[in-house]
Structures are given as C-alpha cells and as structure tokens.
Amino acid sequence: MADPVISFRQVSRVFRAQRGDVVALSDLNLDIYEGEFVTVVGPSGCGKSTALNTIVGLLEPSTGEVLFRGKPTVGICHEVGYVTQADNLFPWRTVLENVTFGLEMRGIGNKAERQERGMALLKRVGLEDFHSHYRHELSGGMRQRVNIVRTLAYDPKVILLDEPFGPLDAQTRLQLQDLLLKLWGERRETTLIFITHDLTEAIALADRVVVMTARPGRIREVVKVNLRRPRDIYTIHTDPKFREIYDKVWAHLADEMRQAVA
Ligand code: ADP
Ligand code: MG
User: Fold this and answer.
1) Domain that holds residue 134
2) DSSP string covering the chain
3) Residue with CA nearest ligand 1 atom 27
4) pLDDT confidence of 133, banded at 50, 70, 90?
5) CA 11 to ligand 1 center in whole angstroms
6) Looking at the structure, do residues 183 and 235 belong to the same domain, yes or no?
7) Which of 29, 40, 181, 236 lies deepest, with the highest CB count within 10 Å?
8) How far is the CA of 23 from the centre of ligand 1 (A)?
9) 24 lines ligand 1 (CB under 6 A)
C-alpha cells in the first residue's frame, strides 16, 4: 500500500482541569491512506473530536505525534478541510459567496473563475437556484449541502467530518450520504475521515470503520468494509455482507459502551 497521508503515532491528550485531569486520548495509533474513506465510531466522550482537532492543529497531542505525509502536522490547514455539525456559514454572505470564500482565501482563480466553480458545485447539489440566498433562508439540509461544497470547492487533500449529518432528519441524511459518496467516488482521491454515531452510516460509506474504545480513546478495532462500489446508499443495508459487518462492529462498540457507563 502507498504511504499513509495521516498517521497517529502513540498520541495521547490530557485536558488539565481543577477537578482532575481528563485523559481524552491514550496511545492512539492509526494510519490513514490516500483516497480512503474512513469512518470513526466510539462511545460519546471517547475523544473522537479531540483526535480530529489534533489533525488540523486546533489541539496539540500531549505526547506522541500526528503526521501528515510523514511530517509533523504544523501549518497544514490548507490541505485539510473540516466539516462540523454546526455549518458555520457566514450569515452576511450569499450561498455562492460562502462557497467561493475558501478559494478567495487561498487566492485561487479570479472572481469569474471562482464563481464558475462555485456554481458548478452548487448545481451538483441542486442548489443553483439558491446561489444568492442567505443562510437564514435555507433549511438545515440545504445549509449542510452548502457547508460540504464550500469545503470541496478548494479541493483539500483530506476532509474531516465530525458528525456532519447529526442534526438532520433520517431521509435528508440518506440524501446527503448519497451525495457525499458520489462526489468522493468520482475521483477517490480525497481522503475522508468521518465521525458518526450512526453505525449504518459508518458502514455504508466507509472503506474501513474504526471503532474507538471508551475514554481514554484508543483504537479498539478496525473493520474493513469489503462491499462493492459504487454503492447504492438506499439498499446497501440489505446486503447480507452488510449485516455481517454491522454485527461485528456493533459487538465491539456495545462492549465499549458497557464499559463507558460502568
Ligand atoms: P467525542 O467527540 O468522542 O464525544 P471529545 O473528543 O469531544 O469526545 O471529548 C473527549 C473528552 O475530552 C471528554 O471527556 C471531554 O469532556 C474532554 N474535552 C474535550 N475537549 C476539551 C477541552 N477543550 N477542555 C477540557 N476537556 C475537554
Ligand atoms: Mg465529538
């Protein structure tokens, strides 16, 4: 296999607090490869978001290191996109202006080129007619579509997604999963690391599902999802192989959840 694009090497992270330290991550080791779609599941509070934050440099590991193409992840933010549950769209910018913002910041193309690229992406997600709308005029699903395409717009090598579809209803979630799979699947060059608490979502999307332990978070198991691609997000769960993988992932997760409350 090619060299990993992101590597966690013996990463730990401690949060110091007056009422006692919280060890969020401990001895986290993981390699993620170019073009992979990796999903991460684990009990609430096990350090999933903390792990992503160390990739973008929002948090530093207490010990160990996070590598981007074999080098410490200092100043790599331009290569890494981050999509969170909160869409963080600028309310004073139109939809199109939100999508072109990342290109502007990176000085990519002239205004007309940026707008053309933005419009092409909005078209892909069925929002071309909403390009001059503002955030407050959009539904939650529409906001999250804009959130995703504005990250795709500047073509980061790695995109981190932290429960991006969490607040959406089940049907909108499926539509956005479908969309994300299609956009990623066209080239399979972008590396996606996607946190979710929805096991069906985790398996339907991923090449590998990473199951984390209860806090302090480590890798409990990495389950390979050897289901054919392209996948039909609406029927993939009926595949007997899917069921098998689901049961396996669930057994690991349930075991960790029991320990988390014990
Ligand atoms: P997850 O995303 O898996 O639900 P987090 O990574 O958000 O978990 O948090 C892991 C642990 O670290 C939790 O116990 C949380 O309270 C603690 N934690 C996270 N961020 C901070 C912070 N900035 N300061 C103090 N404690 C934090
Ligand atoms: Mg989290």
Assistant:
1) 92-155
2) -PPEEEEEEEEEEEE--TT--EEEEEEEEEEEETT-EEEEE--TTSSHHHHHHHHHTSS--SEEEEEETTEE-SS-GGGEEEE-SS----TTS-HHHHHHHHHHHTT-S-HHHHHHHHHHHHHHTT-GGGTT--GGGS-HHHHHHHHHHHHHHT--SEEEEESTTTTS-HHHHHHHHHHHHHHHHTT--SEEEEE-S-HHHHHHH-SEEEEEPSSSB-EEEEEE----SS--TTTGGGSHHHHHHHHHHHHHHHHHHHHHH-
3) 15
4) very high
5) 15
6) yes
7) 40
8) 9
9) yes
